[in-house]
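Anyone up for a design puzzle?
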């Protein structure tokens, strides 16, 4: 299959500077996307008082961005493959900045939830950026750049929590959104200046029916998973949502297999190298998310519980900060392992390291230094695993479908994180005791949650080892698939030649 020719870095001048800053700018966008997702966490306990809304309504500040991000990530990924990845990246980042401005201007909970849903578009930043890096960079620079881009999710989350907590503690809560709006506007300007538009396109007609069907199915599924603990897993609403998800996603799958230009090419997903990578992404997302979720609650538990440390939200963020720094420093190492051993080995190793980190947490979750060691080990494994997942996808799909395929992979991680949140909540709710008259999770509940996350990480390791070995993107493609992909690439190249 023909491949896009990497654009060589100019020797000097403004163009040379822009070329050198492409990777840092995209990494900045990925970190800011993760920061945007975590900045509301320190606000959640105070938002009912600040907005006059109920605690249940306030929880939608997190749920809204999760739902919209899950829906928009594969949709915007497909749009990027068709209409230009840089163009769609600017749109998604612009929507995130606009959402921050709206949040900064209002205290109305309904408007805040709508603005957070708008910010969910930023979930597509990472898959779009990875696809741009694949198209623009030479092979010798691509691995480390993709590894860094994948690690920005954890880096941003680790940085965002303590930073937001400091702002909330010492300034008006709207200031936090003004800061993210300014950072978002800066990101839009930097992308326009430093990031080139990829010449690789996948021509065709956008699958509107597929987008609507996927949205209906994902909203039903994630709404049931995220709200099941609050509404009751056996309630009519939750059961109805699960049934609606099964029906909607079943019809969507049927439509995708029969349409000429699907939103998600399920023929690619059905190949072992792609499909197993998506399964591994779901399991890794589950295992990764339990780390920060459970650690934050554990260290903030009151000292009267017998195990809690009674830390503030700022101190909690600082406990997670070493993990974020570790992800930043180890991303080049993960790229080197993938180059020498292949990304599936890196993925399996990362999942095994995550499981070992949870083993540390089970052995000792009373001493602060051991808690930080265990959390950092999990972050180390996450760095390895998350850097390997996009590399597996990039090696397995045609150049014209990298953004949509990586978008679907990020979607699977998101579903895994939502499932992790629901599972952890269910475990902790069923293992509580009274401390000062208030229900507090027991240490046994936390250890059980760590054990579940560790077991899921081992399952991710097993799945990674079953992924077929590395090869070109057409290695497990049928002859019809290969001819279609070559035809699409020729049409893109021919159009570029005509344009010149």
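Challenge accepted. My sequence:
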């Amino acid at each position: 299959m023909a491949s896009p020719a990497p654009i060589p870095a100019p020797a000097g001048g403004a163009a040379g500077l822009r070329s050198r800053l492409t990777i840092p700018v995209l990494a900045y966008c990925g970190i800011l996307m993760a920061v945007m997702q975590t900045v509301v966490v320190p606000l959640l306990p105070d938002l009912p008082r600040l907005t006059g809304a109920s605690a249940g309504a306030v929880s939608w500040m997190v749920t809204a961005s999760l739902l919209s991000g899950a829906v928009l990530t594969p949709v915007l990924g497909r749009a990027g493959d068709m209409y230009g990845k840089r163009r769609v990246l600017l749109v998604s980042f612009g929507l995130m900045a606009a959402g921050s401005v709206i949040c900064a201007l209002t205290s109305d909970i309904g408007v805040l939830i709508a603005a957070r849903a708008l910010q969910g578009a930023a979930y597509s930043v990472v898959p779009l950026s990875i696809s741009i890096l694949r198209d623009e960079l030479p092979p010798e620079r691509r691995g480390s750049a993709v590894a860094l881009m994948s690690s920005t999710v954890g880096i941003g989350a680790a940085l965002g929590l303590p930073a937001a907590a400091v702002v909330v503690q010492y300034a008006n809560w709207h200031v936090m959104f003004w800061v993210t709006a300014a950072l978002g506007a800066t990101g839009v300007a930097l992308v326009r200046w430093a990031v080139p538009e990829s010449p690789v396109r996948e021509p065709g007609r956008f699958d509107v029916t597929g987008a609507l069907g996927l949205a209906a199915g994902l909203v039903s599924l994630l709404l049931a998973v995220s709200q099941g603990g609050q509404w009751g897993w056996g309630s009519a609403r939750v059961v109805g949502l699960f049934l609606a998800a099964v029906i909607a996603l079943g019809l969507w799958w049927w439509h995708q297999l029969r349409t000429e230009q699907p939103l998600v090419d399920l023929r690619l997903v059905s190949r072992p190298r792609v499909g197993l990578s998506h399964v591994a992404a779901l399991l890794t997302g589950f295992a990764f998310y339990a780390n920060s979720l459970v650690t934050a609650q554990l260290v903030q538990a009151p000292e009267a519980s017998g195990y809690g440390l009674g830390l503030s939200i700022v101190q909690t963020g600082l406990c997670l900060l070493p993990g974020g720094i570790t992800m930043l420093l180890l991303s080049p190492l993960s790229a080197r392992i993938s180059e020498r051993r292949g990304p599936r080995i890196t993925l399996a190793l990362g999942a095994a390291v995550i499981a070992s980190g949870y083993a540390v947490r089970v052995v000792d979750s009373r001493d602060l230094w051991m808690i930080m060691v265990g959390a950092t080990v999990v972050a180390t494994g996450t760095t390895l695993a998350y850097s390997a997942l996009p590399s597996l996808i990039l090696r397995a799909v045609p150049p014209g479908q990298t953004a949509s395929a990586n978008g679907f992979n990020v979607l699977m991680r998101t579903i895994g994180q939502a499932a992790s949140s629901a599972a952890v909540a269910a475990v902790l709710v069923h293992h509580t005791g009274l401390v000062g008259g208030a229900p507090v999770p027991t240490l046994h509940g936390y250890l059980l949650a760590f054990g579940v996350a560790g077991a899921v990480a081992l399952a991710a390791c097993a799945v990674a080892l079953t992924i077929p070995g590395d090869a070109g993107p057409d290695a497990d493609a049928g002859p019809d698939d290969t001819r279609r992909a070559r035809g699409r690439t020729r049409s893109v190249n021919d159009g570029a030649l005509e344009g010149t």
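A detail worth pointing out: Strands lie at 432-435, 438-441.
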